[in-house]
Amino acid sequence: MMAKKLTTGAALVLTVLALASCGNTIRGVGQDAANTVNATQDAGRTVEGAAAR
């Protein structure tokens, strides 16, 4: 009986840790996408400025 409770508790802790890791990864991907958009817009402004000269 005690081993079953211990196994269930350990599985629950591992599940919570795995879900927290997924949340951090998804947040990081969102930040990377935003940075990519910003860099692309900055490059476009640079090209536009160079073409206007």
Automatic annotation (TrEMBL):
Residues 1-20 form the signal peptide. The keyword Signal applies. It comes from the Bacteria. The keyword Signal applies. PROSITE patterns: PROKAR_LIPOPROTEIN. Keywords: Signal. This is Entericidin. It comes from Peteryoungia ipomoeae.
